[in-house]
């Protein structure tokens, strides 16, 4: 299961790279077309906006997995272990609720916009709002797994240490 999830994250990272490359090509190409050839692609602005939104949501999944979001780790990590576990559990429950709201809202938007099409590209707008479902399902799984780790006592610190720091801690060097 771990290997499947790591493959999924690798696919997401490559998708982010492709979104960024697509945005650069579309925007730069449109600038060149406008200033050099006095023409442009009408779909360029719309599609680059879609790529940006997808890149941000997919990037949020990767950053959540890598525990890279901004936070006040030093406050939570300075609490005694029982309070730390309670605060981590409460934080994960609140994040799951926010994720649930994103999923419900995205599902409503996808349902409403299945027969509505973007003006320039003609693509269904449900594809634009569908990223919320991908985001919600992915982050919901990550958050549920981490909540399980918190509840079973296997995760009690916000910052996940790298191998070198963990080895130093085991050796008694801080």
TrEMBL record:
Cell location: Cell inner membrane
Domain Tripartite ATP-independent periplasmic transporters DctQ component: 23-137
Membrane protein topology class: Multi-pass membrane protein
Origin superkingdom: Bacteria
Presence of keyword Ligase: no
Transmembrane regions listed in the UniProt entry: 12-35, 47-65, 86-108, 128-149
Keyword list, A-Z: Cell inner membrane, Cell membrane, Membrane, Transmembrane, Transmembrane helix, Transport
Described function: Part of the tripartite ATP-independent periplasmic (TRAP) transport system.
Family: Belongs to the TRAP transporter small permease family.
Quaternary context: The complex comprises the extracytoplasmic solute receptor protein and the two transmembrane proteins.
The protein's name in its UniProt record: TRAP transporter small permease protein
